[in-house]
Amino acid sequence: MKKKNDQVNVILIGCGPHARRIYLPALRNLQQVKLALVIDLENEASVVRNAIGEMETELWLIQPFAHVLPPELQNRLSQFVADHQVTGVIIATEPLVHRAYAEWALANELNILMDKPVTTRADVTSNLDNAKGILDDYVELLDAYKDLQQRTETIFMINSHRRFHKGFQFVKDQIREVALKTNCPISFIQAYHSDGQWRLPNEIVTQKYHPYCFGYGKASHSGYHIFDTIYQFYKASALPDKVADEMEVISSFLKPNGFFTQFNEKDYLSVFGDEYKEVNPWSEQQLREICADFGEIDISAVIALRKYGEVVANFNVNLVHNGFAGRTWIRPGADLYKGNGRIKHESYHIQQGPFQNIQIHAYQAHDKHDKNENKEEYLGGKNHFDIYVFRNPLLTNGEAQPKVYKYSDLVEHPADEGAPAITMEWVKFRVVEEFADYLAGKKQKHDISSQIEDHAIPVKMMSGIYCAQITQQRACYHFEIDNAAPSGSHYCKTDSAGAWV
Fold first, then answer.
1. How confident is the model over 229-234, as a mean pLDDT?
2. How far from the centroid of its chain's Cα atoms is residue 435's Cα?
3. What is the CATH number of the domain that holds 338?
4. Residue 1 pLDDT > 90, yes or no?
């Protein structure tokens, strides 16, 4: 039994837009946690200092590095952990260095909360070894974590916050219920997510937050959330004798050069006039040369699950950055996380054979999300989240179909849920609270969601989408779930990639 502690010390590594909007406010409100140290890059010094404000925490500003922590930084960090009895670390950095910080944290026996994706690598849209390396990183981190558990108990959470969202949890319950009643697993999922961002060509070249310039894009940004969500839906219907044993991935990317063809310099001049020339110093040909190996903007993929060589389920995944947006201005704002006219759309169609269809629809119409003055659950509101449940008459006892639910229908005290933040941000605060509760001894390990053991399949989806794009062939993996049953928790076995077809 883990002992309860009055207060625990944690480190925040990376204080970018997401950390400033979620992690810092969450930690300010948690009495059981003290933020002992914040680490970020020297070129972010003024922004980070302003964000920290009056918090009593130490700040280290460092130079960027690649792949491996510099020995001096590694030793300095380890000494700080020992001196201040640090028990947890939040890793919110550029994902190219997730592995480096996670390996250091595991070596120091720390509890970890890490942003998605688990890792990515540079040039994963063009370098097959790096695309496969996403899965290699996961396996190495998981092995190191399992080794640590032989010595001491820790947790390693991946911040996949839809697992904490009552709407997604409710959908999984509906899927599980029908699986138990009918013995029918999920047969099809269509997933769509649009970030609603319009980045101008010069920003595609230079922007370092959710970048394209490092050779990765949408799949390594918010795309990971969608891979994890469709896996969670499928897992909710997993039946011991029917769960898939193989996964194949086919993908197609729209990359910057395709976007430049879609909307070219002449088009920008027609919208913004000569001011466009002031922000974009490159010709169309120069842009194409610069961005030849940049990351993906939009993705379409088919993920086929097989059992005994036969397809038993298809997942159709469509992920776009280049979607409907609210931007009308030429120069980007300071907030690259919720700013710049970003309007999010998300939907799912889930088929469970002839017995059930569930649809999730979440569509914003405006880009102002800072104040939550009311529920705003209507179509286009910032908290719009509708669930439609259609069931076969054999299951309905004559009840009218469909049943329609809003997020507020699923929570015990809807007036309190989310205030003053929008619902999705309130959900993100819950992730931090659960991490802190474990550190403080208020929750046990078996109560903790989104641990690294349960991320093998979404990592394989992500790696496979890049590999399939590069080879223009199917990427094939083993697909296994331990203790596969619609009720209770079950975890994916980890294994190496299967054959590349």
1. 98
2. 17
3. 3.30.360.10
4. no
